[in-house]
Amino acid sequence: MISPVTITVDPCWSAGLLQEALRRDGIKADVHDGYGLALVSVWVGLVVWCDGGRFWWRTGWNAGRRRVIYAWHPAADPFRAARRIAMRYEELRTLQCAAAGRHEVHSAEPQ
Known about the structure:
Keywords: Membrane, Transmembrane, Transmembrane helix. The chain crosses the membrane at residues 35-57. By secondary structure, this protein is α+β, with helices and mostly antiparallel strands. The protein has one domain. The chain has helices at 11-24, 78-102, and strands spanning 30-34, 37-43, 46-50, 54-62, 67-74. It has a 5-stranded antiparallel β-sheet with strand order 1-2-3-4-5, with helices on one face. Helix 1 (11-24) packs across helix 2. The chain is globular, with a radius of gyration of 17 Å.
């Protein structure tokens, strides 16, 4: 019996490809790595994790089960993953703008 071959991809390299794909969509993101994982920080509440094999990010909350809901995408396809993440990014920006219209927004920037 032949055992399957496992190909290990550097998570930071995969995250860098995702960062570039997001940049092409006009979205700035930062990449951070450590402990065998990479994080792509996109927006408040939108951090994409990468282990080299897949990207995953939070998409919501299941109140009944009291658990976070995640979406994931293969790291081998960073451009399609970026499109999905861009949709979540726009959703979060829209929610934040709607909330800002109802409440005064506080900034950490010096006045």
